[in-house]
């Protein structure tokens, strides 16, 4: 049998058809996915920073006050290379930091959460003031008018508590209360202006002045009136001129937002009342002694870890996380 032969034209057709059928296979080969281009902001946010030092820092000024004086108190940020006076920063830097130092903007300092006026009123359970009610004078002001001829020595011997003077600007007071609401919310605390007695802790009957070893000092009538006046102001939303700020090292601290005289009543220390024996191994960072009894098992402490007010941040004891 003769071998099969193929003409050159047929061979060309076969080759051509083979090429036509094989060509699409090369086109269907997987191509690399397109590379995602990152923005410059994303790159700079994750990149290690390096500051190129200037040849002359004579023209550097404080970003807060704009002054270049007191060069020995100017701190230079190790990221943005901008200057800040130690006393212009909030909180104030009391000593020159050791090692790397970043300004509040570059360190990613926590931004204060904003609270609307309605949320602030609901958070602190502020009572609506009676518009017909006139502002009453403090007991100290009334007695001052009566005894203008009293000697200075006698007044110094009988120093009494003064009621705090709230800020006159309503928006400023809302800002102050908003800072406290932000701090309490961040620590998952509830606001309270009274001592709380929870089940499983010390009962109200355990907090008796007669249990105090050596006796307990009793407030005078004038100081009691001052205390009641301050409580009434707080219920109306007239708070002490204080603002709660956050520091990356110290946590939440308190700054004065107005003039406060000596011997001014600020706030009562508030929290859950418990026996000290129940808190011997507690890691709460702001416990305060309430009662030291002759019988140690009856001694009480205030624990502001669940409920409290601004006094929890005034004590300055590491208001941060464990």
TrEMBL record:
Keyword annotations from UniProtKB, A to Z: Chromatin regulator, Metal-binding, Zinc, Zinc-finger
GO CC, one annotated term: chromatin
Pfam families in UniProt: PHD
Region described as Disordered: spans on this chain: 1-36
Zinc keyword on record: yes
Gene Ontology MF annotations: chromatin binding; histone acetyltransferase activity; transcription coregulator activity; zinc ion binding
PHD-type domain boundaries: 59-109
Keyword Mitochondrion applies: no
SUPFAM superfamilies, alphabetized: FYVE/PHD zinc finger, SET domain
A GO BP entry: regulation of transcription by RNA polymerase II
Name this protein carries in UniProt: PHD-type domain-containing protein
Organism of this sequence: Citrus sinensis (Sweet orange)
Lineage, opening ranks: Eukaryota, Viridiplantae, Streptophyta, Embryophyta, Tracheophyta
């Amino acid at each position: 049998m003769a071998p099969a032969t193929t003409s050159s034209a047929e061979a060309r057709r076969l080759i051509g058809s083979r090429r036509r059928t094989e060509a699409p296979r090369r086109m269907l080969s997987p191509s690399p996915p397109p590379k995602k281009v990152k923005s410059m902001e994303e790159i700079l946010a994750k990149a290690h920073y390096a500051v190129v030092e200037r040849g002359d820092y004579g023209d550097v000024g404080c970003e807060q006050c704009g002054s270049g004086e007191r060069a020995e108190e100017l701190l230079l940020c190790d990221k943005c290379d901008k200057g800040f006076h130690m006393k212009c920063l909030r909180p104030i830097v009391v000593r020159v930091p050791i090692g790397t130092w970043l300004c509040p903007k570059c360190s990613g300092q926590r931004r204060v959460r904003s609270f609307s006026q309605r949320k602030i009123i609901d958070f602190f359970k502020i009572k609506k003031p009676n518009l017909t009610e006139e502002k009453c004078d403090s007991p100290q002001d009334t007695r001052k008018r009566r005894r203008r001829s009293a000697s200075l020595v006698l007044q110094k011997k009988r120093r009494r508590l003064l009621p705090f003077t709230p800020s006159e600007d309503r928006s400023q007071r809302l800002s102050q209360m908003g800072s406290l609401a932000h701090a309490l919310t961040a620590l998952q605390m509830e606001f309270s202006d009274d001592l709380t007695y929870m089940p499983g802790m010390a009962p109200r009957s355990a907090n008796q002045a007669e249990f105090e070893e050596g006796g307990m000092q009793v407030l005078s009538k004038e100081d009691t009136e001052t205390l009641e006046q301050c409580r009434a102001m707080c219920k109306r939303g007239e708070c002490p001129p204080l603002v709660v700020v956050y520091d990356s090292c110290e946590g939440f601290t308190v700054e004065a937002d107005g003039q406060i005289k000596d011997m001014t009543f600020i706030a009562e220390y508030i929290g859950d009342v418990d026996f000290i024996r129940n808190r011997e191994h507690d890691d709460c960072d702001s416990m305060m002694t309430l009662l030291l009894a002759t019988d140690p098992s009856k001694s009480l402490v205030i624990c502001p870890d669940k409920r409290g007010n601004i006094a929890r941040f005034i004590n300055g004891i590491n208001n941060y996380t464990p």
